[in-house]
User: Which sequence fits this backbone?
């Protein structure tokens, strides 16, 4: 009787084990070799949206899908998977992101309390011998038990019998899926990743007279996401997308490059929500740890307005100036209208404009750079290139008095000296505080805002012109 009971229990146990084995999820592994297409939309706020399509064969019923070759900086909460070939035939039961990556430290950690082999050199025979040892601890270095002795700092090489199941060589997405069909399925995994960003870099080449310019725009993509995107469909979003994390910026110096004049535009632009979307009209491979540049706009013979600008400081109006302020510099700006009549008219993403000009030998020389913001069509792009060398100004306060507790009257004299060979005009911007009234001025002015007076001062070649004005300020 006892023997019969044991036989029944063993039979029941084996049957239960067989049933459990039948219901264990099948394992499916997918790498980049299964990829049929990949698309990435890159934002200029250090994120990218990846859409990775692969063809995968899974068993009918439960399957564990290990989806490898993904971005190392993936945002797990944004992951989504769907079947394109059988939309209603795939159910997601669980989703995991495995990032416990294999390295020497973690491999040793996983073998604490287990026995491994150590290679050590016999000092007498000068040959390597295998020693069995138990890893007792791996805190600040491994501690071994070899036979009845404890040691650390052992010089031998460690041989592990296998890689622990919970250690992986690269980040992996793991899904528990229920499939209604055993046929191969085309699936799409989409997710956001950080570590990839883009911006626009522009090269402007001024004409000899500084009244025309050629403009070449380049998309600069910086990929540090931990993944390569082979033959990717590339889209770029320009605009201020609201993010919880701070935007990460990067810098890169762009050498002057010119796009082919006969080349068709590589990017197609369209309005998208409150942003602008630029789609590359071909596929491109973006490698990990790569900075890639793609031409996206070329315009020639653009009319340019060159300006010399002198800006005052608010502090000049609150106190008496004890002595003249000499050798004040005059800023040099160029202005371009982003309109079709100027061979432009495409919304320009923010970026850096670097300007060049040919010298007397016909060689391009760098003359300055400035950062521009997102610029819609029909708006102006204003670029500061530097300060004029041959134009200087001296400011002097000629009078200062308080006519009442809250009323001040002040007089100023600003001399402009033009050492250039041609006549110029200087736009003078004075930030006058309070409720102000111009009492007198040697040149016409405009009240361009409640706290700004502007003058346009013509200065002949190699001459000096003096601007004087008196103002009453009420606080």
Assistant:
């Amino acid at each position: 009787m006892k023997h019969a009971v044991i036989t029944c229990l063993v039979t029941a146990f084996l049957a239960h084990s067989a049933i459990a084995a039948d219901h264990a999820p099948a394992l499916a592994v997918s790498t980049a070799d299964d990829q049929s297409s990949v698309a990435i939309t890159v934002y200029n706020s250090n994120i990218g949206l990846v859409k990775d399509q692969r063809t995968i064969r899974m068993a009918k019923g439960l399957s564990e899908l290990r989806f490898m070759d993904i971005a190392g900086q993936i945002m797990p909460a944004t992951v989504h998977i769907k079947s394109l070939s059988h939309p209603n035939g795939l159910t997601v039961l669980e989703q995991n992101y495995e990032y416990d990556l294999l390295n020497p430290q973690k491999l040793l950690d996983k073998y604490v309390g287990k026995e491994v082999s150590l290679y050590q050199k016999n000092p007498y025979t000068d040959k390597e011998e295998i020693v069995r040892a138990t890893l007792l601890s791996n805190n600040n270095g491994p501690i071994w038990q070899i036979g009845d002795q404890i040691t650390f700092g052992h010089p031998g090489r460690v041989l592990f019998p296998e890689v622990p199941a919970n250690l992986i060589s690269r980040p992996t997405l793991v899904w528990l899926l229920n499939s209604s069909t055993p046929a191969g399925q085309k699936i799409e995994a989409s997710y956001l990743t950080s570590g990839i960003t883009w911006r626009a870099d522009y090269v402007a080449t001024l004409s000899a007279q500084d009244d025309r310019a050629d403009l070449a725009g380049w998309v600069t993509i910086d990929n540090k996401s931990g993944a390569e995107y082979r033959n990717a469909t590339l889209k770029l979003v320009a605009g201020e997308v609201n993010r919880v994390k701070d935007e990460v910026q990067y810098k890169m110096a762009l050498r002057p490059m010119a796009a082919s004049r006969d080349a068709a535009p590589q990017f197609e632009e369209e309005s998208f929500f409150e942003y602008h979307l630029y789609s590359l009209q071909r596929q491109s491979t973006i490698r990990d740890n790569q900075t890639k540049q793609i031409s996206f706009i070329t315009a020639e013979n653009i009319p340019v307005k060159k300006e010399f600008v002198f800006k005052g400081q608010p502090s000049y109006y609150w106190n008496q100036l004890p002595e003249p302020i000499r050798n004040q510099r005059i800023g040099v700006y160029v202005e371009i209208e982003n309109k079709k009549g100027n061979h432009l008219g495409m919304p320009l993403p923010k970026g850096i404009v670097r300007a060049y000009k040919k010298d007397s030998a016909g060689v391009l020389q760098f003359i300055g750079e400035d950062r521009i913001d997102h610029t819609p069509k029909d708006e102006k792009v204003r670029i500061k290139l530097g300060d004029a060398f041959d134009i200087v100004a001296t400011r002097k306060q000629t009078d200062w008095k308080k006519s009442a507790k809250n009323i001040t009257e002040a007089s100023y004299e600003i001399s402009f000296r033009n050492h250039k060979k041609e006549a110029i005009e200087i736009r003078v911007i004075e930030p006058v505080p309070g409720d102000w009234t111009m009492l007198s001025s040697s040149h016409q002015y405009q009240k361009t805002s409640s706290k700004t007076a502007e003058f346009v001062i013509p200065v002949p070649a190699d001459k000096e012109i003096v601007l004087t004005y008196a103002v009453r300020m009420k606080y």
